[in-house]
UniProtKB/TrEMBL annotation:
Coiled coil: none annotated. The keyword Cytoplasm does not apply. GO terms for cellular component: nucleus. GO terms for biological process: positive regulation of transcription by RNA polymerase II; regulation of transcription by RNA polymerase II. This is Floral homeotic protein AGAMOUS. Gene3D superfamilies: Transcription factor, MADS-box. It comes from Zostera marina. Residues 88-176 form the K-box domain. It is found in: Nucleus. Residues 1-61 form the MADS-box domain. Pfam families: K-box, SRF-TF. Keywords: DNA-binding, Nucleus, Transcription, Transcription regulation.
Length: 176
């Protein structure tokens, strides 16, 4: 029988957290060693504990593996710059998209609130009127649904009260 899944979240108890860190660190170091032996792979693993202690494993040398990694990323990303530059470009592009969406939403909000009615062309005014009419229709429809549900609930309650009233009248009649 396999182990159950655990929720991955920060362990609040410091003692339990330290025990888990040690066990998982040892497991990770063992896996790194096995990967290097079984697959003849160059493996380097660097771990810093929350207390700042350094744990490392490398089947050759950590420094050599890091240098090799830097050379590889530099040669494979030479056209677009470093990884951090690519990330920066991506985030700049995303922020530009979000800024544009925000401006569009602000403009839509202004239109819906009537702030730009004086400068709005006739075609857009008619479009806005249609959208507002549709919104009013949806609101009325929802209000009517709620009223019908409330009426149904009240009718059901009325029937229950009438049944209770009939029952109580019968009880009173029995005692007289």
């Amino acid at each position: 029988m396999g182990r159950g899944k655990i929720e991955i979240k920060r362990i609040e108890n410091p003692t339990n957290r330290q025990v888990t860190f040690c066990k998982r660190r040892n497991g990770l170091l063992k896996k790194a060693y096995e990967l290097s032996v079984l697959c003849d792979a160059e493996v380097a693993l660097v771990i810093f504990s929350n207390r700042g202690r350094l744990y490392e494993y490398a089947n050759h040398s950590v420094r050599g593996s890091i240098d090799r990694y830097k050379k590889w990323t530099a040669s494979h990303n030479s056209g677009s710059g470093s990884v951090s530059q690519a990330n920066a470009q991506y985030y700049l592009k995303e922020s530009s998209k979000l800024r544009q969406q925000m401006i569009e939403m602000q403009n839509t909000t202004k239109k819906l609130l009537g702030d730009t009615l004086t400068t709005m062309p006739m075609r857009e005014l008619k479009q806005l009127e249609r959208r507002l009419d549709q919104a009013v229709q949806k609101i009325r429809s929802k209000r009517n649904q709620l009223l019908v549900a409330e009426i149904g609930s009240m009718q059901k309650r009325e029937m229950e009260l009438q049944t209770d009233n009939t029952y109580l009248r019968a009880k009173i009649a029995e005692k007289e």
